[in-house]
């Protein structure tokens, strides 16, 4: 029996983490996942024990807060144990519970100690089957959140080294569940960005993505390939992951990519699928931005034709397209057209806590969108407290804010608690580094 299912098979305060654990016949646990509504960090109703932790800390001090944290970690251990349960429903609930916890809290110390156990669980879930989704999509997403929690380094490299072959096998398996392949295409891209340690391996992964989305290119005879919406979505996800990895390519790799793909990518602007058209447009804008960074005088032979296509999409009034699709498309392609014609970008300011971050390039936008897809509404918290994500966006270490300023910030009591917790950990880490340096000097 697993140690996580000890203590007479009783989980303390089952409702406080926002999930229920039901035992049937004294053997198996059924973990009910967080709902989408529950997953909102604004209301934070999904994880009532998180707010319980705050209220207990306010009233009872450090001892009670430590007890609440221990209770929370015990429930996380239950989730980890349930990821290998025989019941697909139980595995799904456990995976969803871990995903929500990692998206809304910084759990580096807890996860670091158990990273290979969690990795093994993810690998088993990914290999459970091919024709049906038996928690594979959730497992693929959890792999990304695990890498985001661990950051870029040896630990995430170990995780990715185990999971990368599994991801690539699923991606190449035409008989696998198409929605699982879609999820893997997205997860493989972000995991590669975070954890891949060799730029040539990055390029090899990009070639895997190319093998998918290039199937949507117009054929040599001028005809468009016939494919269903799910296959088109797979190609769209592959294109977006490929675009994400463009942001870390070397100059020589970018030159080859520009020569090979920039003349063909505009073909995807004619796709019947609005998501594919938008992904293609944003990727073209990203390529132009990167090309102009390398060469401010960059020119594209088919520039006029491309601008005509982009202008038509920015003012699309096609009656057979849905109004929401046209509205979304016009907004995006106005920005893409400016990027291609003028090298301009419509900046966006994002506020989190007492800080602001400006999304002022297509590189930064593609990176921000990729992380936000996995952490969701927890993105602002990760921007405040996750050292790895702060490093990616060049925000520096987490800020230390005094209590008066925190009270003046219009955020919930729970968010103030998280901010204080993150700041305390950052300060402790900095002090430990300083102490280590003093010890080193003494020994020397």
From TrEMBL:
Span of domain Interferon-related developmental regulator N-terminal: 43-341
Residue ranges constituting the Interferon-related developmental regulator C-terminal domain according to the UniProt record: 386-438
InterPro entries reported for this sequence: ARM-like, ARM-type_fold, IFRD, Interferon-rel_develop_reg_C, Interferon-rel_develop_reg_N
Gene3D superfamilies: Leucine-rich Repeat Variant
GO CC annotation: nucleus
Pfam families: IFRD, IFRD_C
PANTHER family noted in UniProt: INTERFERON-RELATED DEVELOPMENTAL REGULATOR, INTERFERON-RELATED DEVELOPMENTAL REGULATOR 1
Family affiliation: Belongs to the IFRD family.
Name under which the protein is recorded: Interferon-related developmental regulator 1
Native species: Myripristis murdjan
């Amino acid at each position: 029996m697993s140690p996580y299912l000890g203590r007479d098979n009783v989980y303390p305060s089952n409702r406080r983490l926002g999930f229920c654990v039901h035992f049937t016949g004294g053997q198996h646990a059924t973990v009910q996942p967080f709902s989408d509504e529950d997953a909102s960090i604004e209301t934070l109703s999904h994880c009532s024990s998180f707010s319980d932790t705050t209220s207990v800390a306010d009233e009872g001090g450090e001892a009670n807060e430590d007890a609440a944290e221990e209770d929370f970690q015990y429930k996380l251990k239950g989730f980890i144990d349930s990821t290998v349960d025989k019941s697909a429903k139980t595995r799904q609930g456990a995976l969803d519970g871990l995903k929500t916890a990692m998206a809304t809290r910084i759990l580096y110390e807890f996860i670091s100690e158990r990273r290979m156990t969690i990795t093994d669980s993810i690998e088993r879930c990914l290999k459970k089957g091919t024709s049906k989704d038996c928690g594979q999509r959730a497992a693929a997403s959890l792999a990304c959140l695990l890498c985001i929690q661990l950051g870029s380094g040896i630990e995430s490299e170990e995780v990715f080294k185990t999971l990368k072959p599994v991801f690539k096998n699923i991606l190449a398996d035409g008989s696998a569940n198409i929605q699982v392949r879609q999820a893997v295409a997205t997860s493989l891209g972000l995991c590669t960005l975070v954890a891949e340690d060799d730029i040539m391996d990055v390029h090899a992964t990009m070639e895997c993505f190319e093998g998918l989305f290039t199937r949507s290119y117009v054929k040599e005879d001028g005809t468009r390939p016939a494919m269903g919406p799910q296959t088109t979505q797979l190609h769209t996800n592959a294109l977006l992951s490929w675009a994400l990895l463009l942001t870390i390519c070397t100059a020589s790799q970018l030159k080859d990519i520009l020569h090979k793909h920039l003349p063909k990518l505009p073909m995807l602007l004619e796709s019947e699928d609005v998501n594919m058209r938008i992904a293609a447009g944003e990727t073209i804008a990203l390529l132009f931005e990167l090309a102009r960074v390398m060469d401010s005088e960059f020119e594209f032979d088919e520039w006029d034709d491309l601008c005509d296509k982009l202008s038509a999409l920015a003012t699309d009034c096609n009656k057979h397209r849905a109004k929401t699709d046209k509205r979304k498309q016009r907004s995006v392609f106005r920005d893409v057209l400016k990027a291609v014609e003028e090298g301009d970008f419509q900046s966006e300011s994002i506020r989190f806590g007492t800080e602001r971050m400006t999304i002022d390039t297509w590189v930064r936008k593609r990176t921000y969108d990729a992380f936000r897809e996995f952490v969701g509404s927890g993105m602002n918290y990760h921007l405040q407290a996750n050292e790895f994500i702060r490093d990616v966006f060049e925000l520096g270490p987490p800020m230390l804010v005094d209590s008066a300023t925190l009270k003046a910030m219009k955020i919930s009591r729970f968010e103030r608690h998280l901010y204080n917790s993150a700041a305390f950990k950052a300060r402790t880490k900095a002090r430990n580094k300083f102490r280590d340096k003093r010890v080193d000097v003494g020994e020397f």
